[in-house]
Specification:
CATH topology of the largest domain: Rossmann fold
CATH architecture of the largest domain: 3-Layer(aba) Sandwich
Helix content: 25-40%
Structural class: alpha/beta
Distance between the termini: 49 Å
CATH superfamily of the largest domain: Methylesterase CheB, C-terminal domain
Strand order of the largest sheet: 8-10-7-6-13-14-15
Largest sheet: 7 strands, parallel
CATH class of the largest domain: Alpha Beta
Radius of gyration: 20 Å
Number of strands: 15
Length: 365
């Protein structure tokens, strides 16, 4: 059984979410009316997973999440508003340790939430099995137990990596792309992957992160502040150039084409033939249509499902290069695990070493 704690100040949302999960046979549900009560239930109910509203009295969702990750880390799914402020707060929460989020229905909640119920259950059930790293904010947890004030977390240092994870690419000044796919746990993984890359990184990086359109812009803005590379959301036709990371717009798919001989990325309507969006599989196949496989590096990181596994396995068969995030570091080893099972990974690499592997392959300091 999955012990679910619903933390929300809205009686209507508590009732609706309770009804959805009570109808499932593998959930035991308890409720808290705000973040302060949520912290009490965190220790008395001992949930396997928490859904957490952001805007609440006494203690809001961000403050509650911060306490959860220090006092008793467990998977947290944020309940987010589809507004710019809500998106920014949600991305902040994902960086603090939340593994996923649910976008609140727009309009009449009681009418729309029934249509969202299957997705809600899938998200929370998947989050319950997510891996929370034992070292996550370990120093802060130790200080909290000793009654000391928390210190501001330090940025991670650039990691070294063993040589030869993927072979060195010749002529890095020519056209080439790094293609990245991720889902649950992706914002944290993208931060770890992209922040060590220098402004001189020679190939553009294209990212398909499963996320609604209300949130991908906020993700791009936060990453842009943290990275030496420029980070932009692809909402319309955008010329591809080195020194830039391109985040696919949510609820659409990022595809590549040529325009006057130049590579251009654009947001295409989400194709029904692909289950998840932005689709990793569609991005990779679009790239293979534009460039020789040996000019492409695929990186598949944390996430539920198998999006990207088939296309990246094909990329490797055609002579391209692929990296799967290792199970030990992935919050959810679904997508990279499927790539490994398909025999499509050149290497299985811990998250903190992937950036160094890319820099070595592209002979970048």
């Amino acid at each position: 059984m999955i012990r679910l704690l619903v933390v929300d100040d809205s009686p209507l949302m508590r009732r609706l979410l309770g009804a959805i999960f009570d109808a499932e046979k593998d959930f035991i549900v308890d409720f808290a009316r705000d973040g302060a009560e949520g912290i009490e239930k965190l220790h008395s109910f001992e949930p396997d997973v928490v859904t957490l509203d952001i805007h609440m009295p006494r203690m809001d969702g961000i403050a509650c999440l911060d306490r959860i990750m220090v006092e008793r880390p467990c998977p947290v799914v944020m309940v987010a508003q589809r507004t710019k402020a809500g998106a920014d707060q949600t991305i902040e929460a994902l960086e603090l340790g939340a593994v996923d989020f649910i976008a609140k229905p727009e309009g009449a909640v009681s009418l729309e939430i029934e249509n969202l119920a299957p997705r809600l259950v899938e998200t929370v059930r998947g989050a319950a099995s997510a891996r929370i790293k034992p070292t996550l904010r370990l120093a802060e947890r130790i200080r909290a137990k000793r009654g000391l004030e928390p210190r501001k977390p330090r940025r991670r240092a650039r990691a070294s990596t063993p040589a030869g994870i993927i072979p060195a690419i010749g002529d890095v000044d020519g056209e080439g792309l790094v293609l990245v796919g991720c889902s649950t746990g992706g914002p944290q993984a993208l931060d770890a992957l992209l922040t060590p890359l220098p402004a001189s990184f020679p190939w553009p990086v294209l990212v398909a992160q499963h996320m609604p359109s209300s949130f991908t812009g906020a993700l791009a803005r936060r990453l842009d502040k943290a990275c030496a590379l420029n980070v932009v959301e692809v909402a319309g036709p955008t010329r591809i150039a080195a020194g830039t990371v391109y985040i696919a717009k949510g609820d659409a798919d990022m595809v590549l084409r040529r325009q006057r001989g130049m590579l251009v990325a654009t947001a295409a309507p989400a194709a029904a033939t692909f289950r998840w969006h932005p689709s990793v599989d569609r991005l990779v196949r679009s790239a293979m249509d534009m460039l020789s496989a040996d000019r492409l590096i695929g990186v598949l990181m944390t996430g539920m499902g198998n999006d990207g596994a088939g296309s990246m396995a094909e990329l490797r068969q055609r002579g391209g290069h692929t990296i799967a995030e290792a199970e030990e570091s992935a919050i959810v080893w679904g997508m990279p695990g499927e790539l490994v099972k398909a025999g499509g990974a050149d290497a299985t690499v811990r998250l903190e070493r992937i950036a160094a592997a890319l820099m070595e392959a592209l002979q970048c300091q």
